[in-house]
Amino acid sequence: MAENGLRIVEGRALTPQQKKDLLNRLARVEGQLRGVQKLIALAAEPSDCDAVAQQMAAARKALDRSFVQLLAATMTAQTADAADLNQAKERAAHLAALLEKFA
Known about the structure:
- This protein is an all-alpha fold.
- The chain has a single domain, classed as Up-down Bundle (Methane Monooxygenase Hydroxylase, Chain G, domain 1).
- The protein is built from three helices and no strands.
- InterPro entries: Metal_Tscrpt_repr, Metal_Tscrpt_repr_sf.
C-alpha cells in the first residue's frame, strides 16, 4: 500500500517501485496545487498574483516531470519484457505515439 492509501496493483505496466515513486511525485504536485489555491484565496494586492503565477508554473513543471517519469518508466518496463525485437519495436512505437499526442 502506498503512503497515500492507494493499493498498488502488481502488473506489467510499471514496477511497484516505479508506481510508488510516481505516486509520491504526484502527491507533492497535489500539495503544490493546494498551496496555489490558498495563495489565490488570500490574494489582496496585484503583486500577490506574481506569487500565484510563480507557484502555478512550478506546479505545471512538476506535473510535466511526472509525465516524463511515467513515460520513461513505461518504456523501461514494456520493452524489457518484449518477446522479440519486433514486439519491442511495436511497444516503442506506441510510446512514441503517446509522446506525439500528449507532450
